[in-house]
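Lab notebook page, bench 4
Experiment: in silico fold of construct C2
Operator: M.H.
Input chain length: 444 residues
Purpose: comparison with the prior construct
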Amino acid sequence: MIPETIKRHIRLLRNRLLKCLTRIWLPGFRRVYCADPNIAFLGLDVQGLQMAALLRGIQVIWFDRKERKQRAICDEESLAGESITENAELHRLIEYSVAVDAEVQLSELDQVIAAGRGNCEEYAAHAKQSLQLIRRDLRRFRPHMILLAQGHGVEAVVARRCAVEFGLSLLAFENTALKDRIVWEPISGVTVNRNIARSMFWRYMDAVSPPVIKDFCDGIIASTKQNKQEEHASPEAEWKPDSDRPVVLYLGQVYTDSSLLYGCYPDLAPEQVVQSLYNWCETNGAQLVLKLHPKEATGAAPVTLRPYNKLTMRKLQAMFEGSDALDQSWVTIDSENQWDTYRLIEAADVVVTINSQAGLEAAIRGKNVVTSGRCFYAGLDFTTDVTSSAGMADAVSKCIESGYSKERHALAQKFFYVFFEKYCIKKQNRQLIELFRKVMAFRV
């Protein structure tokens, strides 16, 4: 049996060798430069991916957060000399981080920056260093492609800019509703609501078999609990309506998630959506169920690492402050992840979301779904979509009156199948490396 100290030394030697082989010039190898440390949050086997890629003639150049901090550049060759409010480019680089830090929507960002909140100067300094560091690395390693996560973090925005500046291919990754799948985006570099899901759907929509689609969706529905990431998990407890009233279910998202920050219409932030639904339910004698995102009860923000501390619930309490609106018998709020999300969906007559993938999961279960934001699965004839608060009441009424539609259900399942089986890839090194090859061969 090999002693643990020997194993540790072997691991250290292997890691050093791997770093060396991925960062020196190897003739004939293609090079992928990972510009974004947030890639680590996707749960990829980084070292396994690097090793497998080397065997296929690809160097995956990777620096972790500790290394990046050590390599930070202090001089400011660009983006210097102007305040954040004066420099629109710098404002764009840090807006996501400042919004997460200040716990606000982008519409409130100018006020936050003007008031000096949200650690603006700290993020501005980080953006300047990231721009210089990534530019220097691109000149040093001369990669064929830049790899990043999500698309809106400081390094990701810098990388998207540099990809255009240096004429490089770009590939962004993000987790999906299924824990073993990953969504990718090779053009915009933004995986959230700016991906190529629609194009993939239009490509495959007439080339997939209905029985195959049904079997796939039935299998996903039957194994929902096993397929979910831990932060999206919900308990087995079943909520039951206490009357024959129609049930309107709102599926909340993390308030400062990038999908909301860049997906909300001007007058349809989460509080405004809830207010519109509250008014409709009060007028029409319906039950309102607010399922807030489980991560807000136990998770932490990606930029600050501070607990969310029920962020959306705090926003709702502030909006309804001084009234007993949230205490009405026909209003149920799950801010503690008490009820099973999918049993709530089964009990609902209409499901409303801004742009959560949970809305797509409701649609494949035959539910009427209303989207109220920029959403990658909206506008494809199986959801009812609103772009302003004025249209919410009519949308909910229409869904309640129309009831179940076999055609809409089938179309939703077809999109779901194409999205997860034809577009998303599994978190397997072989599939990731094959995707690297395809993207590097396709220059935009």
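Observations: The domain at 208-423 is CATH 3.40.50.2000 (Rossmann fold). Confidence is low (pLDDT under 50) at residues 76-82.
Next step: discuss at group meeting.
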